Amino acid sequence: MTSIITWNVNGIRAVHKKGLFVPFIEEYNPDILALQETKAERGQAEIDLPAYKEYWNSSTRKKGYSGTVIFTKDEPEATNIGFPMDIVEKYGLDKDSYGDPNAEGRVITAEYKDFFLVNSYTPNSKPDLSRLSLRHKQWDPAFLEYVKRLDEKKPVIFTGDLNAAHTEDDLANPKANEGEHGFTKEEREGIDKIIAAGFVDAFREFTKGNGHYTWWSHFAYARERNVGWRIDYFFVSKRLMKRVKSVEILDHILGSDHCPVRIVLD
Q: Which active-site residues does the annotation give?
């Protein structure tokens, strides 16, 4: 069995200082751990995980911002930071009004014998939707072209914080949030296209309905009341789904405003 966990930690140093990170790893013992929003560079968190190799993509545009990392027991055949330059140039991903999206540490890929693992932290559209155009017209199509290109070589598992709920079942208050960042038709369309391209929202193959969330606001005891959003995903190439045995949201794990999600493959 292969266990992979994704988690937006909202600052790896913060969750580590709370004394919650290492005990979580020791309890679940994943083969691969994909983290988003690390807000750190390698070595800054002083985490001792001797069983794991570490592969970091930290933001160079702005320190202490964004960032992704893969911890893995087995050494990958190869790793890649960010998007290939031809995709960056094709979609103009080297600039927007905030800076250089490709320099924000948002994508890291590890190639294993049987699959590619892509860890992604999708840009937030912002409450004023000032980054919605970047996301809808540049980032989402660039990311989809990238994973489709990988999928031509071998199956793909891509995971992370997509900063969007896909359907009304994926957030507690869909009517109130219609058109707001994280639940615009443009963001949802991006996920529609992922599925249309042959990638499977693995969690939904095992669990239907609402009430299953991975992020909660800090306001008004939202987590205690489970007023949340499911914005952290595992997508799997359709031909790899036969190996997927379970996908579960670990909503009892604290330390971040997101919780981890775990997928197990045979």
A: 121, 161
